[in-house]
What does this fold into?
Amino acid sequence: MGEFGRRRVMNALEWRHEAPKLLAAYEALRQGGPRQRYAAREVES
It folds into this structure.
């Protein structure tokens, strides 16, 4: 991995940066988030 990749992993992709996004996505799914919208489109089609 080059220096750019290493810095990206350490600064942008580190767990402390990714965890809030993942937890928000899981919560949205738990509450029926995007999944409901897609299901509604399938029924209407």
Summary: The radius of gyration is 17 Å.
